[in-house]
């Protein structure tokens, strides 16, 4: 093993490499620049016992052999070490040794062989043991590589490049030269496939059943044709199958035409942004679990109406999920304070503190003030995803019903909606709900309200009214009200089961994972004009809050403030 000093030192000493401590072993010294250099390592295995002098000569011979390549550039200075005890004194012609040794030493300015103790020659001993292990191998070569860093650190990501061999070559070889694969099955298949093709000059064409020959294209030209026909000057951004048919009608063919056309149309950015909106559900319905009356309320804001008295143009609507009782109040502003006052006056002061309030993600319901107030009263707030009113479906249905009743009552006097609101609420509360089979008034008070029709045309309970008997019957009814509510609860569960079966039949499953790119509906966040795209984005999915609900981030790294439901999302293909 050779030990090399620093490059600067080599230059200062006229390109001489100073060899020191030459051993037939492994060097542990470094150059100053951090590199290792191994020029020669020689391991001698002599088939016959060796004397000290013979071993010395062989050692010098190894140095000489290793230096033959180097002496063309440098004049070398070297030293050799050997353990005399390891070399047996055997008879040998000293003159021959001296002559050969002198001849080999001439290549060096200085070359000496010294005797050293065995404990100072450990590395050479280790190499000799290695030589003994491979003594039976006639031809061997040992290479030692010293690296500054591990292979893992040096590893670099590379892109695998595969040669694209055109699918046309095998068919053309058969049609021109009748060359077939050696495998008989593959040869039979090749002949069967080639029967559908023909050669005109050096061009390959595909035969069709009742049309012209189709020019066969390789991958590169196929991509050009797809792009030009789909989005070129005469392109119409058609769907995958329509695009494939148009390509074939124009006279082109390749084996994966239908698949490639579908993939190309699916990944077209313009087609994705202007695609039709998705109306089919993606996840099963998850109905709200109801425990008891006045336990859960849904709350929403209906906006805006024509300005009425005191500039009131908004409605705060709350619906109790069990009895379907509804509370509505007209307000001029829709800030947190108005919502807190509504909950306190119309819900808590009349029916007690609810356990859960369900609302959308509006700032009126998600502000710091109202959230702290609800936390103080231990009211759990559940928020629906953006653009997913179905999650608070009971409130949305009630909103539509109230609006429809107001429209039919107002006719031309649109600003009188506040005055008509109490009558609309009374009508709603005294009308049986299909989900319970009872009126909200009955489930709350265990009796039916007396309506104006019963006064104009008296009914039996008006004609046969007995105050004393009525009090006893009323007490009994209140005692047995739980039975009526249990019956209503069973009907609610049955009604929800029917809704779930109907809803889940329309499901077209889809889901996203963290890191997926998606588009979201534009109409959810802003008004859409006639020529505007229906989808915007792409956005990156950063978190799955629950199945069908996701947190999003735009490509600039900005997080969208609220979770989005999968109903308003679609996958973006690149």
Automatic annotation (TrEMBL):
PANTHER family: RIBONUCLEASE H
Superkingdom field: Eukaryota
Location of the Integrase catalytic domain: 289-448
Transmembrane regions: none
One BP term from GO: DNA integration
InterPro entries in the cross-refs: Integrase_cat-core, Integrase_H2C2, RNaseH-like_sf, RNaseH_sf
Name used for this protein in its record: Gag-Pol polyprotein
Annotated region (Disordered), positions in chain: 83-103
One Pfam short name: rve
Gene Ontology MF: a single term: nucleic acid binding
Biased composition (Polar residues): 85-99
């Amino acid at each position: 093993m050779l030990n090399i000093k620093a490059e600067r030192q080599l230059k200062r000493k006229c390109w001489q490499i100073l060899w020191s401590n030459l051993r037939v072993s492994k060097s542990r010294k470094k150059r100053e620049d951090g590199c290792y250099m191994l020029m020669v390592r020689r391991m001698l295995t002599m088939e016959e016992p060796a004397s000290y002098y013979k071993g010395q000569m062989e050692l010098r011979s190894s140095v000489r052999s290793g230096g033959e390549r180097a002496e063309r550039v440098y004049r070398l200075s070297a030293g050799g070490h050997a353990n005399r005890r390891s070399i047996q004194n055997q008879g040998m012609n000293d003159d021959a040794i001296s002559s050969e040794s002198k001849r080999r030493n001439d290549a060096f300015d200085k070359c000496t062989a010294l005797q050293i103790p065995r404990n100072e020659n450990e590395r050479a001993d280790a190499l000799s043991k290695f030589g003994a292990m491979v003594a039976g191998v006639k031809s061997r070569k040992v290479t030692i590589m010293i690296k500054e860093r591990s292979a893992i650190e040096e590893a670099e990501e590379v892109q695998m490049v595969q040669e694209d061999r055109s699918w046309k070559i095998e068919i053309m070889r058969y049609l021109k030269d009748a060359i077939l694969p050696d495998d008989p099955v593959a040869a039979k298949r090749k002949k069967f496939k080639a029967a559908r093709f023909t050669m005109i000059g050096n061009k390959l064409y595909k035969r069709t059943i009742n049309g012209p020959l189709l020019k066969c294209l390789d991958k590169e030209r196929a991509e050009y044709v797809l792009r030009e026909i789909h989005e070129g000057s005469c392109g119409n951004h058609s769907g995958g199958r329509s695009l494939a048919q148009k390509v074939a009608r124009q006279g082109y063919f390749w084996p994966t035409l239908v698949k490639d056309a579908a993939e190309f149309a699916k990944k077209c950015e313009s087609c994705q942004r202007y695609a039709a909106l998705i109306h089919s559900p993606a996840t099963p319905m998850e109905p709200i679990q109801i425990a008891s009356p006045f336990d859960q309320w849904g709350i929403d804001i209906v906006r805006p109406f024509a300005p009425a008295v005191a500039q009131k143009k908004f409605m705060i609507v709350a619906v109790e999920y069990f009895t379907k009782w509804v509370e509505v109040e007209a307000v001029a502003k829709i800030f947190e304070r108005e919502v807190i006052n509504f909950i306190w006056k119309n819900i808590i002061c009349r029916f007690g503190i609810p356990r859960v309030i369900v609302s959308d993600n509006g700032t009126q319901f998600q502000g710091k003030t109202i959230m702290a107030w609800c936390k103080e009263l231990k009211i759990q707030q559940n928020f629906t995803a953006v653009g997913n009113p179905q999650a608070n479906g009971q409130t949305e249905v009630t909103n539509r019903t109230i609006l429809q009743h107001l429209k039919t009552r107002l006719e031309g006097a649109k600003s009188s909606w506040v005055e008509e609101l109490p009558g609309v609420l009374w009508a709603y509360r005294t009308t049986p709900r299909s989900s319970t089979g009872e009126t909200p008034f009955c489930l709350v008070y265990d009796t039916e309200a007396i309506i104006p029709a019963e006064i104009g045309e008296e009914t039996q309970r008006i004609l046969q009214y007995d105050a004393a008997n009525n009090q006893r019957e009323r007490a009994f009814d209140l005692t047995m009200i739980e039975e009526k509510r249990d019956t209503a609860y069973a009907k609610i569960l049955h009604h929800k089961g029917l809704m779930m079966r109907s809803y889940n039949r329309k499901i077209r499953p889809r889901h996203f994972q963290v890191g997926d790119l998606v588009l979201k509906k534009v109409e959810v966040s802003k008004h859409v004009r006639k020529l505007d795209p229906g989808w915007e984005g792409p956005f990156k999915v950063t978190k799955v809050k629950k199945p069908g609900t996701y947190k999003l981030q735009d490509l600039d790294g900005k997080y969208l403030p609220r979770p989005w439901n999968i109903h308003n999302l679609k996958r973006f293909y690149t």
